[in-house]
C-alpha cells in the first residue's frame, strides 16, 4: 500500500523521526512517499502543532478529513481516530501513531471519543474538496483523465495541454463547477493518447484558470512561499485576460515575490491564490524549489524608450 | 546633433508577425490594428481553404495609434519561402516578434522550431511569443509537444493557442510580449 505523507513546521529532530518512521513503515508493506505539505491532498500529514503554521495546516487537515499526526507538548484530544497526538518520543511510537491513523482511515471510522459523531472521511478516498483541488493531487496532476464534474463529462488531456467535451455547454458547465465538491468516483485515469470525449477542444490552462478565478472566494490558501513556473501557461483564450497573464509573468521572471507584486499592482490576494491553484492543477507550478532557470529579468527596455513603452502597454490594456 | 534613429525610437516602434503561409498573420494584424492593413495580398492560385482566398506576397503593414500621437507599426512577413529575404529587413528594429502557426497543420511542431530559430538567429534576445491558430479544429492538437520541442532548442517563449480572428485573443499575444519588456 502506498501513502502520500506530508510534513509541516516540524523541528529538525521531529523531521528526522518522520523520515525514519517512513522507512520503518516499509516493514509493514506501507510505502510512504514523504514530502513537505503544499496544500494539496494527501493521505496523512504530520505537523508541529506548537507552531503557528503547523497549527494552520492541522486545522486544514481536520477540515478536509486528511489523516493527521500532531506533535505538541500539551496533549490534544481529537474526535476522530484518523487524527492523533504524539508527544516527543521515539520513531517507533511515531510509527504506531501513523499506523493507527492509516488503519482508521481504511476502516469505516468510529469516533475516538464516545458522544462525538463527526462524519468519517477516508483519507485518499473521499473527496470533500473541490474538483479543482482534487486535480492538484499527485494522483491526477499531469495525467490524462476522464472526469465527471457536476454531471458533465470532460476529458482532461494533460499530456497534450487540452481539455475536450462533447458540447460547448458541457465544457462551460464543467469549468464553472470546478469549485464544487468532486465526487469520489469523478475521475478515471486513462492511457496517454486515449482519445478524448467529443469535438470541443480547449486549452487546459485557460479552462483551469477561468474555473479557478470563478471560485476564488472558496479556495483555501495555497501553501508554500516560493513558486516558479515550468512553462508559461497557455493564456491565449482565457476569458479573464489580464490578471492571469500578469501573475504568470511575475512567476516566470522572478519566482517568489508574486504576492507582494500583485498587491502593489492592485491584484487581490484571492486572484493570485486562484491562479496558483490553477497553474498547479495544470502541472506548471513548482513549489518551494529553486527554479531550474528563471528567465532573466528583461534587460530589454532599451529596445523601446520607456515612456513609449508605457503608452504602448496602456494602449493594450496594461498599466504599469 | 540629434541622431535621427533616437528620435524614431522615442516616437515609434514596431511589432513583426512571422510564420508559415496561411497561419493567420494577416488576420491577426487585422484584428488589432486601427484600420485594415495595407497588404500586398494576391489571390491564391490553386485550391483555397475556408475563407482564405489570398496570400501576402511582400508584407502587411498596419498601425495602432497610441497616446501622444505616437504609433506602433505592425508588420506581417510573407510566409512563402521565396520572400525569406524580407524577414531580416522587417525584423530589424522590432520590439518583438509574434510567431503565428497553424495548429491544424500536422507539421506544426517543425514549423514552430523553424520560425523560432529564424527569429532567434536574427537576434537571440528579441522577445517572442508563439500563437497557434485553429486548435479548436483538431481535437488531437498537442501543445505539450510544441513546448518540449522549444525547450529542446533552448528557446522558451510563451506558447499560446488563439483565434487570430478574435481581437481579444490576439491582444493577449501582444500583451505577453510587452510584459517581457516591463
Ligand atoms: N478556424 C479558424 N480559422 C482561423 C483561426 N485563425 C485564423 N483563421 C483563418 O485562417 C486564415 C489565415 O489566413 P491569413 O491571415 O491570410 O494567413 P497569413 O498567415 O497571412 O498567410 P500568408 O499571407 O499566405 O503567409 C484566415 O482565413 C482566417 O480566417 C482560428 O483560430 N480558427
Ligand atoms: Mg498574409
From TrEMBL, chain A:
It comes from the Bacteria. This is Uncharacterized protein. It comes from Tahibacter harae.
TrEMBL record, chain B:
This is ATP/GTP-binding protein. It comes from the Bacteria. The lineage of its organism: Bacteria, Pseudomonadati, Pseudomonadota, Gammaproteobacteria, Lysobacterales. InterPro entries: Gliding_Motility_GTPase (IPR052705), P-loop_NTPase (IPR027417). Gene3D superfamilies: P-loop containing nucleotide triphosphate hydrolases (3.40.50.300). PANTHER family: ATP/GTP-BINDING PROTEIN-RELATED, GLIDING MOTILITY PROTEIN MGLA.
Amino acid at each position: 500500500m502506498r501513502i502520500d505523507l506530508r510534513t509541516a513546521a516540524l523541528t529538525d529532530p521531529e523531521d528526522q523521526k518522520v523520515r525514519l518512521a517512513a522507512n520503518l513503515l516499509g516493514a509493514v508493506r506501507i510505502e510512504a512517499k514523504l514530502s513537505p505539505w503544499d496544500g494539496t491532498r494527501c493521505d496523512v500529514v504530520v505537523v508541529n502543532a506548537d507552531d503557528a503554521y503547523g497549527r494552520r495546516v492541522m486545522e486544514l487537515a481536520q477540515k478536509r478529513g486528511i489523516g493527521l499526526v500532531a506533535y505538541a507538548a500539551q496533549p490534544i484530544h481529537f474526535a476522530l481516530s484518523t487524527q492523533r497526538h504524539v508527544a516527543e518520543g521515539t520513531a517507533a511510537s511515531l510509527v504506531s501513531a501513523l499506523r493507527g491513523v492509516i488503519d482508521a482511515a481504511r476502516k469505516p471510522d468510529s469516533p475516538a471519543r464516545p458522544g462525538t459523531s463527526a462524519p468519517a472521511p477516508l483519507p485518499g478516498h473521499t473527496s470533500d474538496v473541490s474538483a479543482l483541488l482534487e486535480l492538484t493531487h499527485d494522483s491526477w496532476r499531469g495525467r490524462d483523465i476522464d472526469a465527471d464534474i457536476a454531471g458533465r463529462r470532460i476529458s482532461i488531456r494533460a499530456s497534450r495541454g487540452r481539455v475536450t467535451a462533447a458540447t460547448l455547454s458541457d465544457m462551460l458547465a464543467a469549468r464553472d463547477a470546478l469549485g464544487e465538491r468532486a465526487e469520489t468516483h469523478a475521475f478515471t485515469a486513462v492511457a496517454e493518447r486515449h482519445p478524448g470525449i467529443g469535438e470541443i477542444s480547449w486549452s487546459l490552462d485557460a479552462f483551469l484558470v477561468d474555473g479557478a478565478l470563478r471560485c476564488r472566494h472558496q479556495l483555501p490558501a495555497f501553501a508554500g512561499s516560493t513558486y516558479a513556473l515550468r512553462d508559461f501557461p497557455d493564456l491565449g483564450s482565457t476569458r479573464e485576460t489580464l490578471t492571469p497573464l500578469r501573475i504568470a509573468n511575475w512567476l516566470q521572471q522572478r519566482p517568489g515575490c508574486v504576492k507582494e507584486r500583485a498587491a502593489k499592482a492592485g491584484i487581490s490576494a484571492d486572484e493570485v491564490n486562484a491562479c496558483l491553484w490553477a497553474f498547479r492543477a495544470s502541472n506548471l507550478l513548482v513549489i518551494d524549489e529553486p527554479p531550474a532557470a528563471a528567465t532573466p529579468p528583461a534587460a530589454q527596455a532599451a529596445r523601446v524608450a520607456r515612456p513609449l513603452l508605457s503608452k504602448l502597454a496602456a494602449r493594450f490594456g496594461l498599466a504599469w | 546633433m540629434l541622431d535621427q534613429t533616437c528620435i524614431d525610437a522615442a516616437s515609434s516602434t514596431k511589432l513583426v508577425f512571422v510564420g508559415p503561409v496561411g497561419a493567420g498573420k494577416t488576420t491577426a494584424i487585422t484584428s488589432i490594428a486601427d484600420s485594415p492593413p495595407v497588404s500586398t495580398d494576391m489571390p491564391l492560385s490553386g485550391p483555397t481553404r475556408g475563407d482564405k482566398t489570398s496570400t501576402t506576397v511582400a508584407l502587411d503593414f498596419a498601425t495602432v495609434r497610441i497616446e501622444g500621437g505616437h504609433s506602433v507599426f505592425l508588420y506581417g512577413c510573407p510566409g512563402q519561402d521565396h520572400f525569406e529575404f524580407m524577414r531580416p529587413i522587417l525584423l530589424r528594429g522590432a520590439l518583438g516578434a509574434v510567431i503565428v502557426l497553424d495548429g491544424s497543420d500536422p507539421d506544426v511542431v517543425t514549423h514552430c522550431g523553424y520560425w523560432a530559430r529564424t527569429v532567434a538567429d536574427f537576434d537571440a534576445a528579441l522577445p517572442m511569443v508563439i500563437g497557434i491558430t485553429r486548435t479548436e479544429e483538431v481535437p488531437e492538437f498537442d501543445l505539450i509537444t510544441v513546448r518540449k520541442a522549444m525547450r529542446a532548442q533552448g528557446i522558451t517563449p510563451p506558447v499560446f493557442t488563439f483565434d487570430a480572428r478574435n481581437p481579444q485573443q490576439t491582444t493577449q499575444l501582444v500583451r505577453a510580449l510587452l510584459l517581457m519588456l516591463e
